[in-house]
């Protein structure tokens, strides 16, 4: 207590009462600043990651999260609950109330109560002001709010691809914060009469998604595991006074809400075959340099060299001509342009130029190309530091000149995998189900998304079972 008091005095009285614990603690970010920061970051997150285009599903998730948030210690915050169009198994909270879950994590859930357990956990991060505490410590010790938390630090030298939202989204909370959010999530879901045993099942599922050859879910990697969460939840249940009324699970209702949802990467939103990028919806193709690490986001497509010393980014410029876009780009302060060209690229209207710009770290040099396809102009930017430009010049120009209209019928007609429900007319094992209703995912993964054991699972007649198909 004496140390905490000393810190607050040093911070010129910048302390606040934690709404969850009632204790005084360091808070260099006011509630109004917290809300403003979260709202701005939420806009960035929605733009950069994409909102899943299903208004019914969005309203459904909102209807489950909002009652818990309104009954929490901070009911007046501008709470929101959004499903983002991302295949990763993830959920995160931004300061001041915005909560996000991915369609990826929804695909692994099997009841409303499981979804509520995750939403409650994320609400807990906000009510306990965990982000504020992290930012206050960073500001006090380093003079930084978000700068120390930006994702993908290897790209910072050449410009931030993520911005504030990604930094806030992927804040790593400590063991105590995670345990507290688990406690709060348990409290919120049981207060709303949801069965807490489903929280245990959710943790088991998340543990399973990190094994068996599947990639570690983001929700586990960005939320450090505070010991055995399954055991801790079982301890909470044992100490909990169960109400006399029924507890809500709502398995079938939840499953019917996610029936038809895209599962895994959606190729309609663009996909890579090695380093060749195809976008069937936009009808374009672009070859990124061989051996580079690539990433497709809702707002941009990017690639970074193997040595992490060069970058290439494609973004949407909008309804403007390449020449107009180039004039606007060249008017930026501190930018020097040369080698301008108005030559078409693969029959498409285009404008290209070489540029140099002074950043805080170094002088960067590269190429910018604006090219128009079906009335929309795209910006292609490739750059490195000035000393390495000659090394990458030919590679840059080859990639930028590869932009072209996509005409391959197979690429244009590609479809995403989707979750589909099957209502069983007779009991069967998972193996029998997979034989009768084949999925495009391995049976081990099929077991995980249905929350069962692959070797021993038996479904009764009348049960709804998930499969993953391309239709």
Indicate the overall shape: globular
Helix content: 25-40%
DSSP strand (E) fraction?
Answer: 15-25%
Number of helices: 17
Strand order of the largest sheet: 10-11-12-16-15-14-13
Rg over CA atoms, rounded to whole Å, is 25 Å
- Assign the structural class, choosing from mainly alpha, mainly beta, alpha/beta, alpha+beta, or little secondary structure: alpha+beta
Q: How many strands in all? A: 21
Number of self-contained structural domains:
3
Instruction: Report, as a whole number of angstroms, the end-to-end distance.
Output: 61 Å
**Largest β-sheet summary:** 7 strands, antiparallel
Uncertain spans, ≥5 residues at pLDDT below 50?
Answer: 1-13, 140-166, 212-216
Mean pLDDT: 85
Which labels suit this protein?
Protein Transport Mog1p, Chain A, 4-stranded antiparallel sheet, disordered N terminus, 17 helices, 21 strands, 471 residues, 3 domains, 23% strand, single chain, alpha+beta, 7-stranded antiparallel sheet
Describe what this molecule looks like in 3D.
This protein has 471 residues and is of the alpha+beta class. The protein folds into three domains: 2-258, no CATH class; 268-412, Mog1/PsbP, alpha/beta/alpha sandwich (Protein Transport Mog1p, Chain A), CATH 3.40.1000; 416-470. 37% of the residues lie in helices and 23% in strands. It has helices at 2-10, 31-49, 55-70, 103-106, 112-127, 130-142, 164-169, 175-191, 197-209, 218-221, 229-239, 251-258, 322-330, 389-400, 409-412, 430-436, 443-449, and strands at residues 15-17, 24-26, 80-84, 91-93, 98-102, 262-263, 271-273, 276-279, 284-287, 293-296, 300-304, 310-318, 335-341, 350-358, 363-373, 376-385, 404-405, 417-423, 428-429, 458-459, 464-470. The strands form six sheets. It has a seven-stranded antiparallel beta sheet. The protein has a four-stranded antiparallel beta sheet with strand order 7-8-9-17. The longest helix is centred in the first third of the chain and has 19 residues, at 31-49.
């Amino acid at each position: 207590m004496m140390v905490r008091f000393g810190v607050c005095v040093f911070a010129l009285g910048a302390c606040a009462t934690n709404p969850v614990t009632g204790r005084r603690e360091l808070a260099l970010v006011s509630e109004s600043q917290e809300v403003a920061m979260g709202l701005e970051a939420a806009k960035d997150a929605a733009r950069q990651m994409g909102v899943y285009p299903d208004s019914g599903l969005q309203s459904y998730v909102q209807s489950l999260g909002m009652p818990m948030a309104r009954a929490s210690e901070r009911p007046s915050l501008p709470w929101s609950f959004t499903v983002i169009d991302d295949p990763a198994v993830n959920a995160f909270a931004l300061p001041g109330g915005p909560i996000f879950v991915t369609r990826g994590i929804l695909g692994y859930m099997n009841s409303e109560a499981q979804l509520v357990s995750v939403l409650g956990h994320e609400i807990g991060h906000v009510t306990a002001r965990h982000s504020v505490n992290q930012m206050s410590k960073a500001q006090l010790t380093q003079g930084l709010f978000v700068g120390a938390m930006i994702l993908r630090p290897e790209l910072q030298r050449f410009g931030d691809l993520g911005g504030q939202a990604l930094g806030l989204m992927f804040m790593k909370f400590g063991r105590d914060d995670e345990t507290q959010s688990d406690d709060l999530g348990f409290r919120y879901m049981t207060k709303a009469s949801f069965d807490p045993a489903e929280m245990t099942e959710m943790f088991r599922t998340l543990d399973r998604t990190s094994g068996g050859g599947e990639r570690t879910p983001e929700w586990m990697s960005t939320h450090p595991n505070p010991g055995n969460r399954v055991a801790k939840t079982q301890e909470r249940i044992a100490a909990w006074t169960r109400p006399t009324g029924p507890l809500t699970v709502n398995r079938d209702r939840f499953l019917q809400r996610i029936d038809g949802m895209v599962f895994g990467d959606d190729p309609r939103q663009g996909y890579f075959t090695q380093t060749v990028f195809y976008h069937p919806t936009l009808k374009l193709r672009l070859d990124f340099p061989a051996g580079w690490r690539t990433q497709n986001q809702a707002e941009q497509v990017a690639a970074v060299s193997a040595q992490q010393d060069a970058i290439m980014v494609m973004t949407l410029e909008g309804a403007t001509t390449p020449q107009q876009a180039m004039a606007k780009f060249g008017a930026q302060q501190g930018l020097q342009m040369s080698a301008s060209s108005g030559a078409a690229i693969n029959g498409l209207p285009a404008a290209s130029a070489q540029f140099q710009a002074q950043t805080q770290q170094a002088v960067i040099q590269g190429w910018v190309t604006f090219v128009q396809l079906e009335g929309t102009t795209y910006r292609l930017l490739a750059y490195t530091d000035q000393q390495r430009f000659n090394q990458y010049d030919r590679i840059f120009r080859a990639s930028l000149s590869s932009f072209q209209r996509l005409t391959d019928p197979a690429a244009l007609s590609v479809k995403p995998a989707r979750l589909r429900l099957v209502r069983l007319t007779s009991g069967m094992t998972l193996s029998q189900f997979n034989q009768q209703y084949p999925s495009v995912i391995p049976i081990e993964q099929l077991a995980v998304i249905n929350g069962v054991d692959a070797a021993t699972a038996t479904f009764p007649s009348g049960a709804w079972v998930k499969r993953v198909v391309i239709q």
